[in-house]
Every structure is written in structure tokens, then in C-alpha cells.
Amino acid sequence: MTVTYVIPGAEVTGLERFWQLIGEAVNGPDGYFGRNLDAFADCLSGGYGTPDDRDFVIEWRDHELSRRALGHQETARQLRLRLARVPEVNRGLVQGQLDEAEAGRGPTVFDWLTEIIDERAPGVLRLM
Fold first, then answer.
1. Are 121 and 47 in contact, with CB atoms under 8 Å apart?
2. Three-state secondary structure call for residue 74
3. CB–CB of 86/94 below 8 Å?
4. Residue 100 class from Cβ within 10 Å (0-12 exposed, 13-18 middle, 19+ buried)?
């Protein structure tokens, strides 16, 4: 039987809130399902609460509200945080991404998340 995990998109106010909501959807109150992009990708690969047979869907309700909350403004905020801790060799790349986000261009946090889902668990994402 396919397991459905629901992300209540209207409750997504930023990336930190997304981590809380996806963790609760998959693993219950205070549940964990990643707290950064790499960990989220790992969790989608299995063994962190999803069924072993990978028979699940992620139903992202009101995803357009999440798309706005995780848009260029949130992307710029996340990139500023990343810039503060990135090795010097990567600062130029992150600064370029930050410049693009501040100009309202380029991929957003929402895009990052949906791309990870599509790559690690193809076909499970239902945007509603």
C-alpha cells in the first residue's frame, strides 16, 4: 500500500519550517527527515522513515504558497548563511548565486528541494 506524506504548503514559511514539516510528515512529531540539502537527499534515498519498498508519495499541498515562501528572498537568505561558512575557494560561486537571487533570478530554494526529490525519488512528488 502506498504511503502518502503530506506537506502543508501554507505552513511553509522558510527552509527551516520546511525541515520541520517534512520531518513530521514522515516520522511524526519532532521527526527528522533532513536539516540540510545533503541530509534531505540522503533521507530520500531510504532508511530514514520511508518504506523499504520505496512505495510512497509526497503530496505537497498549496505548493504555490510554498513556492513564494521559498522564492528568491529566502534563497538569498540561505545563500548569505552559506557564504558565511563556505571555504574561500567556493566563495565566488556562492556570491554569484547570491547576486542572482538578490536580482530575482536563478533557481530558488523551492527549485532546489523539488529537484532533489525528483532526482532521489523520481515520481513521488505530487504538487497540489
1. no
2. helix
3. yes
4. middle
E strand intervals along 19-89:
56-61
Coil, helix or strand at residue 32: coil
pTM of the model: 0.96
Sheet order of strands, 3-8 included: 3-8, 56-61, 125-127
Residue 50's SS3 state is: coil
5-64, pLDDT tens digit by residue? 999 999 999 999 999 999 999 999 999 999 999 999 999 988 899 998 889 999 999 999
Q: Would you state the cell numbers that stand for residue 120, as one nine-digit string?
A: 532521489
Polymer length in residues for the chain: 128
Q: In whole angstroms, how far apart are CA 98 and each of 79, 90, 106, 110, 114?
A: 6, 12, 9, 15, 20
Give the Cα separation of 64 and 96 in Å (integer): 26
Q: What are phi and psi of 77, to 5 degrees?
A: -60, -45
